[in-house]
Amino acid sequence: MAAKKHPIFDTATTLGKLVLFLGVSTICGVLVAGLMVPAAALASTTTTSSITLFDELPDEMNVGTPAQSSKILASDGSLLATFYDQNRTEVPLEEISPFMKDAIVAVEDARYYEHGGIDTRGLMRAVSSMVQGGGRQGASTITQQFVNNVIIQTYAADGEYDKIKLGADKGVGEKVREIKLAIAIEKKYSKDEILQGYLNWVLYANGNFGIESAAYNYFGIHAKDLNLQQSALLAGVVNSPQIYDPIANPENSLTRRNLVLDHMLDQGMIDAKQHKDAVAAKIDLKLQPQRNGCTSAVRAEYFCEYVSNLFVNDVAYGKTEEDRLKLLLQGGLTIKTTLDPKLQDAAQSQMANFTPMDNNPDKVGQAIVSVQPKTGKILAMAQNTKMAPPEGQWKTDYNFAVDRLDAKGNSLGGSGGFDVGSTIKPFTFAEWLNSGHRTDDTVNASVRRYPQSRPWTNSCGSTGGFYDSSDPQVAEDLQNADGPDGIYYRTYTARQGLALSLNTATMATAAQLDICNIQKMMTATGIHQGEDVTQPYNVSSISALLGSGAVAPLTMANAFATFASGGIYCAPIALLSVTNAKGDKLPVPGANCKQTVKPEVAAGVNMALQQVLAPGGSGYAIPLQYPAGAKTGTTNDSQHTWTTGFTRGVATSSWVGSPELKDQSINGKLIAGQRIPYVDGSTYAGKAWQGYMNQIAGNYDVGAFDPPPASIVYPPAPPPVVEKPKPGQSQNDSDQKSDDKGQQNNGNNKDNNKDKKD
């Protein structure tokens, strides 16, 4: 029907008929509470006092926007999760099936388009029936029901449940007030506007508020696609959602549906054939799971939880946490995130190869997280557990990939990070280059003893720790992973030392640097403590430069993304846009990208990390089919194992370790269907990283990295030696010797170039 009002009486006429109604009630001596008789009228000596009372009632109500479901979406617009107090998605009337509009009018208020909010004919019929002993009959119009729903659900949305009154709990005053509000609503809104509001506000059983949610939950379709029998079924539910629940009480629901169809036939809304076919149709529900919150997310439930925590922690979305949570649960928000479903699914599938959820008796943790260089976008965040798994599976609320708290002390739900092992070494190497050294400067990696008396330079704090087997407090020299009798204790270039992941090489470079500057380099790439993100990575012990500090996988991936991007740091971001129910854009945090590491330093680090994956490097067993750099990491007793690496387009951190008992070794634990005595960074974390990156990297930039300038690679050649001419020797002879020296230096450069290719 057109959006046109056809009330046959105005407010004055309504009052006159109400007076007549009150008079009938008084004569009969019946208090018809269900029909909204004012108690004051029964005690009054004149009807004037009743009219005065009615006039003094408020006639304004703020309909507002009903509480609506919020949605978290992936970057491609696909649904990740839904949040709601009331499962509702508001839709305009033109997006609701005409069958549904007719069905609800037919069964709930046949004269809806004829009255002005109060159906006096129905009201008087109900009174007459009660006077004659016929029992109570309903007389509420769609408008009155709409008013009632708005009042109840507004109280519920505000948490004022004590103010909600249903049916017989309502006093006479509340019922009269609803009558006057219904009349006022009819004067303010068109019939179609009221019908639209009603269909969007009313409950259709099983937590489905509004016709769009009901259509999807029961039939897997939109409200505009409801057919005749589906519309009649849902129209029948609203009278008593519990009694006519199509899931719990299908027989009652079917009987009620057919009654609605009878009304539609009687009122000329459908013809006999439509009626016959619809009555013969089965209910044929196609139930869809109701997804509320991250535990029932379509995918990436821990990323979902991370996003919801970011939202609730951000004062941009409300003054208090309570306000922000209410907005998330009721505001009809559309939150579009950075997550790439292709990458997320690929990362999640890796878990089945190593630590499957249904066969992980030793509770070995695994996580993969990816960030896009130059944007900070979090592309994937996967782990091998669920928040609400089937019985018998490992359950944890902790997100292995992220910090425990944000910078303001609010929970992010994270594990707080894990000791990173040798994945921290590139940052010492980066400062080595930043301070003026070259990649191919040599370092003495044979030095294994750093006595307690040796001072470590730290201009912004203090750094202690020592390695000295002659000291009874230590009884151990610094050693590399190959053990004390290995072959790797000699002079190397700094680049070779990093590619081989030699502890002695890293310590030899650190011994020539200001530890404070190493810490600053870490901070420039985003490295911080996982437990307290306001604090920089703790370098008070020299062992921290070998990986004894805890960092979250997301932080590690993002720090390596800084190198991949040529030294541009971007804060990791998860939100692309937030839009409210009205379509207004709300602010989202930016990545604030900026150059924090010199491009030539980043290029030098990238060159060294590419060698890690080359033959002879510590990650030689996990190369990619694309240009890539990476660093493996293993803690002393293999409690935590890592591979963090990148292409130009994706930086990924892969971790396998002990998330709950962080000091427990994973050696001998069941991983990939086997138990082996020693696990390092390339064993499982590296294999997962390799398989995942080979699968997904081609979706993003896989071009070659910019080479570092020669000035940051090669040590300068010594100046040529020019001898003074001896008596009787010509100047030309002296020049010739100088040329020979120059040719010799050129030869050295050729050797260095050859080494660069290696």
From TrEMBL:
Catalysed transformations (reactions): Preferential cleavage: (Ac)2-L-Lys-D-Ala-|-D-Ala. Also transpeptidation of peptidyl-alanyl moieties that are N-acyl substituents of D-alanine; [GlcNAc-(1->4)-Mur2Ac(oyl-L-Ala-gamma-D-Glu-L-Lys-D-Ala-D-Ala)](n)-di-trans,octa-cis-undecaprenyl diphosphate + beta-D-GlcNAc-(1->4)-Mur2Ac(oyl-L-Ala-gamma-D-Glu-L-Lys-D-Ala-D-Ala)-di-trans,octa-cis-undecaprenyl diphosphate = [GlcNAc-(1->4)-Mur2Ac(oyl-L-Ala-gamma-D-Glu-L-Lys-D-Ala-D-Ala)](n+1)-di-trans,octa-cis-undecaprenyl diphosphate + di-trans,octa-cis-undecaprenyl diphosphate + H(+)
Regions of compositional bias (Pro residues) in chain numbering: 710-722
Keyword Glycosyltransferase: yes
GO molecular function: penicillin binding; peptidoglycan glycosyltransferase activity; serine-type D-Ala-D-Ala carboxypeptidase activity
GO BP: cell wall organization; peptidoglycan biosynthetic process; proteolysis; regulation of cell shape
Domain Glycosyl transferase family: residue ranges: 77-264
Annotated stretches, region: Disordered: 710-758
The name this protein goes by in its record: Glycosyl transferase
Organism (species): Arthrobacter psychrochitiniphilus
Lineage: Bacteria, Bacillati, Actinomycetota, Actinomycetes, Micrococcales
